[in-house]
Amino acid sequence: MYKTTFPIPPLHKYVSCFWEGELVINANQVHTHHAIANSKVELLFCYAGNYVTTGVNGQPVKMPKASFYGQTTTSKQYISTARQNGFFGVRLYAHALPLLFSIPATMLTNQHIDIASLLNKQGAELSERIFLAPSFEERVQIAADFLLSRLQKKPAKLEHLEKRILSVYHSAQHLSICELANQANFSQRQFERHFKNLTGFSPKTYLKISRFESLASALSCQEGITSQKLTDMALDFGYYDQAHLNRHFKEFTGLSPSGYLKRQEVQNQ
User: Fold this and answer.
1) Which of 34, 104, 155, 261 is the most buried (most CB within 10 A)?
2) Cα–Cα dist 234/261, whole Å
3) How far apart are CA 78 and CA 115, in angstroms?
4) Is residue 212 part of a domain?
């Protein structure tokens, strides 16, 4: 079971969507979630399951029940052996971290941090309310109310930069860093510094991941994709050739294009 809903207008700039997923597996079965590189931040509440990942030194690391999962440049696997698995998530644009929580986005790049460690008592109280809520709709309302309470007036210069970041998320155009800086009324050096603080990435890395996310999203909406169809779609999204596409697939998913598509077919069954 998987549900999604979009935020109310005041949160459109900060929240991509609210979602919930539940999965029941057989006894002695293992569920593996393969997460790919992501420009967004997930505020996740695991109300059922016991997910574990691999740490830097190869040791197993148990995932917190409520935490921020930061924007990432690489893929990672999460494994659960529990029969009942359930998550409620708030998918945030990375600039929500500094603008709503006064946390530099760079703090969460390729990291996951317990919500109570970042937000203290407010984080602990939010987690408790989310876990006690009996339905997806009530969890969404609790999370939305919490985020609305964090809205604040932003400096004008950040308003300009925020618009440029959102234009990258939602535009089919492939703008250069210089063009984005000019649109935001910054020098390129100023733009790159503020951009990294707001998104956790350099503009170059961010544009690469954002383009790949757009392609991955388009692929998820189609079935029976042939090698030629994949190449044609890649060209539409600004990839130069097959070798360019292959490098990004390996970098951001850990898989070849064909391996990624096969995994998607299995997950959709």
Assistant:
1) 261
2) 14
3) 19
4) no
Q: In what order do the strands lie in the sheet with 2-5?
A: 2-5, 15-24, 84-93, 40-48, 66-69, 112-114
Q: Would residue 69 count as lying in a domain?
A: yes
Domain of residue 177 covers 156-204
CA nearest neighbour of 203 among 224, 182, 234: 182
- The phi, psi pair for 174, rounded to 5°, reads -110, 85
- pLDDT at position 253: 93
198 in the same domain as 228: no
Question: Tokens 């951001």 appear where?
Answer: 252
The answer, as to whether pTM is greater than 0.85, is: yes
Residues of the chain scoring pLDDT < 70: 153-158, 160, 169-174, 266-269
Strand order in the sheet with 76-80: 31-35, 76-80, 52-54, 60-62
> What kind and span of H or E run contains 5?
strand 2-5
Longest dimension (CA), the chain: 58
